[in-house]
Amino acid sequence: MGNRNSDLMSAQKKRDDEYYTLYEDIAAEIPKYKEQLKGKRIICPCDWDESFDEEIVYSNVEYVYSDNLIEPGGTLKEIDLKKPQKIIKNINAVTCNFIKFLIAHAESYQIQSITVSGYNPATGEGIKFQNIDYSKYDLVITNPPFSQIIDLFDIMFDYKLKFLVIGPQTAIGYKEAFKYIKTNQMWLGYAKQLTGFLLPDGTEILAKNPEGSVPRACKWFTNLDVSYRHDKMILTEKYIPEKYPKYYNYDAIDVSKTKDIPYDYEEKMGVPITFLQKYNPDQFEIIESNRETVKTVRWNGDKANLWIEKDSKPWKCPFERIIIRNKEVYHDED
Length: 334
Fold this sequence. Notes:
19% helix, elongated, Rossmann fold, alpha+beta, 4-stranded mixed sheet
């Protein structure tokens, strides 16, 4: 029975990891970072749909790497050229939509080089993203296996790399990921949700509406600059106790919609995760996540949720909350 459960979990994880990004989603997001891609050495790892090992597919520098010149042990030889050249290797065989988009815009974006790596977990062929030497690159763009996204985040910060990656919306609540969000080392991209995914058999799974994708809601995670982090959120609501109930099991008020954040409340507030795509770190402070908050408190035997009063009865908040404070009205008495 234990082996069967393990097999089922492995199968589910494999299905969760085999969602490929639609070209439309890539084309809608990446152009917003055009100036930040200039001169960058970009690598797109984690592409299970690619069957070849790591190689440069585009280069506008004075050296290129060639997949037919491989040293013993699998390392790639470096070839010096007398002048810059643009090298596109086997581009017709490339199935990765990230690479297709980047190659199409490499010249106008002034990208220095584009590298792709593939790994087939079924056969063990290719290069795992954990085994790549990232010191050769400046920027990572990819849709990683969702089950391994924390590993990818940790590697990006260990190598001090810029990145633009797709991950499940639920990763926001993972303590291993939220620590980077809380400390303003990582934030969300522009798209509210992806429009859908491509399955290995070529089937497209499209979102039922612009706010949610199928089969799971996803976000772009990045440490590239995004404009909304410099825009001050205009707050129009005044704090009224009747409108903003306090939690039973945490000293904060509940704000059910980001647009309803009161402009005059200085203490802690629980807000939806949609707040993160309007979050200006100069205007607000992120205290902790819903999951960090409730791990030390309990209400009605429940240790996993925040509780408020609704219709004169205790009511469990059905959605994730982020605890914030308005820095413009908060006064530290210390």
